[in-house]
Amino acid sequence: MPFPLSVEQKQTAFWVAVWAAFFLLLVTLGPVLTPFLAAAILAYALNPGVDFLDHLRVGRLKVRVPRPLAVLVVVVLFFAAIAALVLIVVPVLQKEIPMLQAQIPAFLAKANDLLGPKLQEMGVKVRLDSDGIKKLVSQQMATSGDEIWSAVLNSARVGGTAVLGWIATLVLIPVVLFYLLLDWHPMLARIAGCVPRRWIGATMDMANEVDTLLAQYLRGQLLVMFVLAVYYSVALAIAGFDVALPVGIITGLLVFIPYLGFGLGLVLALISAVLQFSDWSGVVAVAVIYGAGQVIEGFFLTPRLVGERIGLNPLAVIFALLAFGQLFGFVGVLLALPASAVLMVAFKHLRRHYLSSSFYNA
């Protein structure tokens, strides 16, 4: 005979079911939530700047900046910085891409001289020059033209929808960011007010731990990104690379994704070295610059600016990015860092309770 549930147990089961349904709804609405989550992450990072302007002091005089004006200033400065970055990188790429395109035939000629005889020995008769590649592409298009055309049409349909979605997201993010920053502290108070009173103390302690962890990680990582972007840009420019600025900036800005940013920058630099230099000097310069960059990042910048005490291991960040991206798509990638910080704090508390439990000590 089942035991009857008490009133408290029934209420607990009801509210657990309500919150489970709420989170299931959020997962279902994942694509719609993308601009809101992106704006929430940006608001978390930019809110200290708004608070600084909101409580600005000039000497002993306290200058009270209205919060709407402080939010507007911070948002405008943030997007102005992004626009400045784009204006720096895009003209350089517009100048360098034709140069790279002009050097592609010479690169193909080198590849044909190196790989052509080996391919012929294997029975593959293909010339790796411009004429040979054009002939190969034309043959493939002649044999499978219908499939290529249908694939292009399908890609255009999907791509058009994706472009419209990205435009809507880019338009929504500044608007949502402004209102989130404007209502940041009352919104956090309302969220805290939804937590059951018996759990409010432990919940606020964990929230403060997560906030400290994320704040230290994000601020330190931003400094690491800035220093490495300057280092790679200057070092590649000294070595004589024509694409030093965009490649250096890309390598530095993507370093927050462990190994992926470094790997992408290394590949771009190696391609530039092969196309620009006639000997192995460019490849050697890339190896020295990027090897020294890894040493500087791993042994000086990350321990000093980010700090090992934070505990966000690069492998844990990689796993979080892959896992949350697989589960929730792009929204999961946005949530990977804060979710990994929350899980790390939760696991720390769970481990402490486990080590003090009778199950472990018996």
Question: What best-fitting shape do the alpha-carbon axes yield?
Answer: globular
Stretches with pLDDT under 50, minimum 5 residues: none
**Average pLDDT rating:** 75
Distance between the termini: 33 Å
Helix content: over 70%
| Beta content | under 5%
Structure, explained:
By secondary structure, this protein is mainly alpha-helical. It folds into 3 domains: 33-95 and 131-194, no CATH class; 215-311; 312-362, no CATH class. The chain is 83% helix and 2% strand. It has helices spanning 7-28, 30-54, 67-121, 130-143, 145-182, 184-193, 200-238, 244-253, 260-276, 281-306, 314-328, 330-355, 358-361, and strands at residues 56-58, 61-63. Strands 1-2 form a two-stranded antiparallel sheet. β1 and β2 form a beta hairpin. The longest helix is centred in the first third of the chain and has 55 residues, at 67-121.
Task: For this entry, give a set of tags.
2% strand, globular, 2 strands, 362 residues, 13 helices, two-stranded antiparallel ribbon, mainly alpha
Summarize the structure.
This is AI-2E family transporter. The model has no long low-confidence stretch (mean pLDDT 75). This protein has 13 helices and 2 strands.
Fold topology:
Layout: H1 7-28, H2 30-54, E1 56-58, E2 61-63, H3 67-121, H4 130-143, H5 145-182, H6 184-193, H7 200-238, H8 244-253, H9 260-276, H10 281-306, H11 314-328, H12 330-355, H13 358-361
Antiparallel strand pairs: 1-2
Helix pairs in contact: 2-3, 2-5, 2-12, 3-5, 3-9, 7-8, 7-10, 7-12, 8-9, 9-10, 11-12
